[in-house]
Design goal:
By secondary structure, this protein is α+β, with helices and mostly antiparallel strands. Helix content is about 40%, strand content about 30%. The protein has a four-stranded antiparallel sheet with strand order 1-2-4-3, covered by helices on one side.
Length: about 90
């Protein structure tokens, strides 16, 4: 149980660091959402982010999954960072 908490805390710490980098690239604070066994980060794709697209992609690629979604307000870059799951004990 304690191992799971440490693992989740490590994922959350990584998510906060990546969100800070996304904030630098977009100029807007990203949204961080806890999901079952993962953390999701969403950032609005601003003009500033478009000028640094390669850097933005480099950050997104650090996620387990990532992409860009069209929303009514514009494009949103997102990434998920999954918590490593332990296999069954034998």
């Amino acid at each position: 149980m304690g191992h799971d908490r440490r693992r989740n805390a490590a994922v959350r710490t990584a998510a906060v660091a990546l969100a800070a980098r996304l904030a630098e690239l977009t100029g807007i604070a990203p949204r961080i959402t806890d999901e079952p066994h993962a953390v999701r980060i969403e950032a609005d794709v601003t003009d500033a982010a478009l000028r640094r697209w390669t850097e933005l992609l480099a950050v997104l690629e650090r996620g387990t999954d990532y992409g860009v979604t069209n929303a009514p307000s514009g494009q949103v870059a997102w990434m998920r960072i999954e918590s490593p799951r332990r296999g069954p004990r034998l």
